[in-house]
């Protein structure tokens, strides 16, 4: 699912000369809707692409623990001020920033991500530092749990 999402966005990644570092553990299997989970990955990657300057690196990583695994999509982009972070999963919420409004999104991407993750009984955590980058972590139960 992750590789497919990166594939879908390969043209956009190339156009911005972004480097994607993939560390995917093939042993991680989750129970869920492949189409919706791919949508989650696409939305997060689209954000990483949109809010990161050309030539930077986007890291896609999975790590498996005993009962659950975590997907991390991290960028070296513009970041999000702390007061906005709690709100960015709200529908139509966009940070009022010249660089983010120039390339118009609708502010729905993360709301959709949150809904899909909730439907899979997973958790979503966003960590960000303005001017340094953003990391989104999604934790989902392992298939055998
Ligand atoms: P779209 O509906 O096309 O996804 P969007 O990207 O504006 O539009 P969201 O994906 O929901 O909407 O993101 C909400 C807001 O959170 C964005 O407008 C942006 O301000 C901020 N944001 C989200 N991801 C990042 C990121 N990786 N780096 C910096 N800001 C981000
Ligand atoms: Mg988006």
From TrEMBL:
Identify the residues that the record assigns to the Histidine kinase domain, covering every copy. 1-144
The record's subcellular locations are:
Cell membrane
> Which protein is depicted?
histidine kinase
Source organism of this protein record? Caryophanon latum
Q: What is the lineage of its organism?
A: Bacteria, Bacillati, Bacillota, Bacilli, Bacillales
In terms of the parent sequence, the fragment covers: 314 to 458 of 458
């Amino acid at each position: 699912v992750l590789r497919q999402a990166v594939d879908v966005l390969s043209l956009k990644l190339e156009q911005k000369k972004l480097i994607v570092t993939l560390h995917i553990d093939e042993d991680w299997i989750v129970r869920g809707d492949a189409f919706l989970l791919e949508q989650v990955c696409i939305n997060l990657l689209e954000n990483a692409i949109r809010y990161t300057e050309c030539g930077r690196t986007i890291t896609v990583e999975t790590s498996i623990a005993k009962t659950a695994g975590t997907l991390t999509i991290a960028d070296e982009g513009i970041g999000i001020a702390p007061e906005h972070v709690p709100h960015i999963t709200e529908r139509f919420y966009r940070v009022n920033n010249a660089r983010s409004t120039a390339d118009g999104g609708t502010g729905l991407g993360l709301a959709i991500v949150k809904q899909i993750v909730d439907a899979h009984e997973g958790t979503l955590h966003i960590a960000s530092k303005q001017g340094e980058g953003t990391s989104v972590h999604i934790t989902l139960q392992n298939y055998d749990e």
